[in-house]
Automatic annotation (TrEMBL):
The lineage of its organism: Eukaryota, Viridiplantae, Streptophyta, Embryophyta, Tracheophyta. Belongs to the 'GDXG' lipolytic enzyme family. InterPro entries: AB_hydrolase_3 (IPR013094), AB_hydrolase_fold (IPR029058), Carboxylest/Gibb_receptor (IPR050466). It comes from Salix udensis. This is Alpha/beta hydrolase fold-3 domain-containing protein. Residues 77-287 form the Alpha/beta hydrolase fold-3 domain. GO terms for molecular function: hydrolase activity.
């Protein structure tokens, strides 16, 4: 056997991943070294990791702000990371630092979900894992779940879903499931934050090949999970929350998808309140890459306000 063939690239989905003839997957946007959970002495935010499902290697990173009152109940944020369903994690510096900052500023408990990633685990694995994590969170409603922070300090009547890019896509789909499956007894999803959501349009584009590859079982343009503004208009009306906050960025190739989603949601007959905020002159997920920029600070203030005035 010619071993040189094993280094042959059979699928190249730059800038996300390549697959080699020997089956190896190379993530091109290099996954940075994971950041361990921590205790920040400046803010008092503490984080820790816990396994939700050994079977699916499903885990979450939890964040809690400084607790001054043992009886205090805080809003609960379930966050789903982006990365085109195939890169990044809650343990990367990008997401660890963002969640720690948000938890400090909004005074919330956060659960950051590590779903199985494509291409090793094609969609709908990310959706199923995220739903399993949300159901795990819901198992704490009576104060008898495995995670003491959630048992003692989470206000399940003030639960929020949020995500960026592919994570925003997943967060939307989790809100649809919550609205149509009645699977979250005791959990009230007040609001959903979608930052630069990763949806497809009705026509193929530069992102279509990777989505078609990692979601092989569906026609993506006809699937409401990937194209909610086109294929999923009926599902939008059953979105299981009262408020939605959408962020788009002026230079982002996904900008129009977020705008279409906003318009479709308004037309759908859904009875909630939806707001869209555009960051002019900015690109995709700029708020994660440059969190100290003026526009990133404006975004953070908007999210904090949305959570703290969302009940």
């Amino acid at each position: 056997m010619d071993s040189s063939n094993s280094n042959e690239v059979v699928h190249d989905f730059s800038p996300f991943f390549r697959i080699y003839k020997n089956g190896k997957v190379e993530r091109i946007t290099a996954d940075t070294e994971p950041v361990p959970p921590s205790n920040d002495p400046l803010t008092g935010v503490t984080s820790r990791d816990t396994v939700v499902s050994q079977e699916n290697s499903l885990s979450v990173r939890l964040f809690i702000p400084k607790i001054t009152d043992p009886a205090q109940k805080l809003p609960l944020l379930i966050y789903i990371h982006g990365g085109a369903f195939c890169i990044e994690s809650p343990f990367s510096p990008l997401y660890h630092n963002y969640l720690a900052d948000l938890v400090h500023k909004a005074n919330v408990i956060a659960v950051s979900v590590q779903y199985r990633r494509a291409p090793e685990h094609p969609l709908p694995a990310a959706y199923d894992d995220s739903w399993a994590a949300i159901q795990w969170v819901a198992s704490h409603v009576n104060g008898e779940g495995p995670e003491s922070w959630l048992n003692e300090h989470a206000d399940f009547d003030r639960t929020f879903l949020a995500g960026d890019s592919a994570g925003a896509n997943i967060a939307h789909n989790m809100a649809v499931r919550a609205g149509t499956m009645n699977g979250l007894v005791g959990v009230k999803i007040v609001g959903v934050v979608l930052a630069h959501p990763f949806f497809v349009s009705n026509e193929p584009d530069s992102l279509s090949p990777v989505i078609e590859f990692i979601f092989p079982s569906v026609r993506i343009y006809d699937d409401p999970r990937i194209n909610p503004a086109g294929a999923g208009a009926a599902e939008l009306a059953s979105l299981g929350c009262a408020r939605v906050l959408i962020f788009v960025a002026g230079k982002d190739v996904l900008r129009e998808r977020g705008v279409r989603y906003h318009e479709a949601l308004r037309r759908s007959g859904w009875g909630g309140m939806v707001e869209i905020v555009e960051s002019e002159g900015e690109d995709h997920v700029f708020h994660l890459l440059n969190p100290n920029s003026a526009n990133a600070r404006v975004m953070m203030e908007k999210v904090v306000s949305f959570i703290n005035h969302g009940h």
